[in-house]
Design a protein that fits this description.
The protein is of the alpha+beta class and 96 residues long. Helices cover 25% and strands 39% of the residues. The longest helix has 10 residues, at 66-75.
Length: 96
């Protein structure tokens, strides 16, 4: 599993995704809005990640701090709450 990615922010897309490079590898990472807003183009960043496998996709969700990732993981355990909904919930509130 990919738990943490360190690298330079290569580009920022629509508010829930960015691409980082580590050792020359680029990763598309979907982030909640509070984490996304802390990233700066061409600056170094450390992103805690959750690798999510669905029938039709493999997605990487990222978070600036581990606590936010832990809350995300608790949310997706709730029946009826998927990864996209959990990400939206974290975008609307603080994980603290």
């Amino acid at each position: 599993m990919i738990g943490l990615i360190n690298g330079q922010v290569q580009y920022l897309m629509a508010p829930t995704a960015c691409v980082m490079t580590t050792s020359g590898v680029g990763y598309d990472i979907e982030l909640p809005l509070p984490s996304f807003c802390q990233l700066r183009l061409n600056e170094q960043a450390s992103i805690w990640t959750h690798f999510h496998v669905r029938e039709d996709a493999q997605l990487l969700y990222g978070f600036i701090d581990r606590k936010e990732r832990d809350v995300f993981r608790q949310l997706i355990k709730i029946n009826g709450v998927g990864a996209k909904m959990a990400l939206a919930m974290l975008s609307a509130m603080s994980a603290a």
